[in-house]
Design a protein that fits this description.
12 helices; Enolase-like, domain 1; alpha/beta; 14 strands; 384 residues; metal-binding; 2 domains
Length: 384
């Protein structure tokens, strides 16, 4: 924890939207643009921190979340002496709980608080002059982070997988849930493109019921899959996840759509999910996700941060994985997205499936706002 309180003088939010070329396909919808919402906190000394708010859906969600950050988090965060980022996150949780119930906006408000929390931790680590993973209690020297190429669409997936393998990736995740014939044909093409010696996962994005998921798991077992992600809806009782784990041979992954610590604690304590995937911009920020990650590792499960946004959240996910430890991977979107690099400079390189983070203070990156001007979206703030 920082040695002195964090006094926030200014909280700001920034919205960006880049074209999705190609669009990102899932079993429940298509992303036709790549949005990003960043939040920054600045103290009286001019030291700053950056966070990212999940905003992929709905299509108007980015602008709305930025307004929520300015309307509700800014007046609560600015001008107070916070003993540390975790204290700020817990205070926001308490003070916005009734608002979340009143509005039915639990998801967007949790996502806004998550982004603010990441920014506070980035600021704290920069002030301390250490990498974030180190401030979180991680090792003095960061081990390499294992990553996988994600978001691989069902349209010509082998082409993208082969390109990412040439870039240095050694693990891949394919989107499924588009019919048994198409899914199996894509898996065959993927294995031909990447070989048998690399990790391959699949993500159904909540496409099936329990019976369909069990059939799919058995169908796909011959492809040597590392896990089957979100085959059922995230709100299916944990007893049914345990039953599904017994009914088919694949390791089950999920958790990106949980929205409370209790949900994660229950999933970790009970059989069913073997891979926990909280999203740092969707719930919990650094404070919540670190607790979940460490609990998962202690229980013998994998902690594999979910991320399909821009660069700040991706770098935060890597710091979290280093601090939590254990086996597993960090997700890296395989699709083109200029906001992944421009909003988190300097960028990173993947070598033999691994990323090595520099020992720079905080997250070690900052957005190039000038370069991102073509993607900037003006957000009306008069009402806030």
């Amino acid at each position: 924890m920082p040695a002195e309180p964090l006094v926030i003088e200014r909280l700001e939010a920034f919205v960006f939207r880049a074209p999705a070329e190609p669009p990102v396909q899932t079993s429940f919808g298509i992303m036709k643009s790549r949005p990003a919402v960043l939040v920054s906190v600045t103290d009286a000394d001019g030291c700053f921190g950056w966070g990212e708010i999940w905003c992929n859906f709905p299509i108007v969600g980015a602008e709305h979340r930025a307004r929520l950050a300015l309307a509700y988090c800014r007046p609560l965060v600015e001008g107070r002496a916070w003993p540390g980022p975790a204290a700020c996150w817990r205070a926001l949780q308490a003070q916005l709980a009734v608002l979340a119930l009143q509005t039915g906006e639990q998801g967007p408000l949790q996502q806004v608080m998550a982004g603010v929390d990441t920014a506070m931790w980035d600021l704290a680590a920069r002030r301390a002059g250490v990498p974030l993973w180190q401030l979180l209690g991680g090792p003095a020297e960061a081990p390499p982070v294992a990553v996988y190429a994600s978001g691989i669409n069902p349209t010509r997936p082998a082409e993208l997988a082969a390109a990412k393998r040439a870039e240095g990736y050694r693990a891949f995740k394919l989107k499924v849930g588009f019919g048994a014939g198409r899914d199996l044909a894509n898996l065959r093409a993927m294995r031909e493109a990447i070989g048998q010696d690399v990790a391959l996962m699949v993500d159904a994005n909540q496409a099936w019921d329990e019976q369909e998921a069990a059939q799919a798991g058995r169908r796909m077992a011959d492809f040597g899959l590392l896990w089957l992600e979100e085959p059922m809806r995230a709100d299916v009782p944990l007893s049914r996840w345990a039953a599904l784990a017994q009914a088919q041979p694949l390791r089950l992954a999920g958790g990106e759509n949980y929205a409370s610590l209790v949900q994660y604690q229950n999933a970790i304590a009970r059989p069913g999910l073997a891979v926990l995937q909280p999203d740092v911009g969707k719930w919990g920020g650094i404070t919540g996700c670190l607790e979940v990650g460490r609990a998962a590792v202690a229980a013998g499960k994998w902690y594999c941060p979910h991320w399909l946004g821009a660069g700040i959240g991706l770098r935060a996910s890597m710091h979290l994985k280093i601090a939590a430890g254990g086996a597993g991977y960090v997700e890296v979107d395989a699709n083109p997205n200029p906001l992944r690099d421009l909003l988190a400079e300097p960028s990173f390189a993947v070598r033999d499936g691994l990323v090595r983070l520099p020992a720079a203070p905080g997250l070690g990156v900052a957005p190039n706002l000038q370069a991102c001007r073509p993607y900037a979206v003006a957000v009306a703030t008069a009402e806030v």
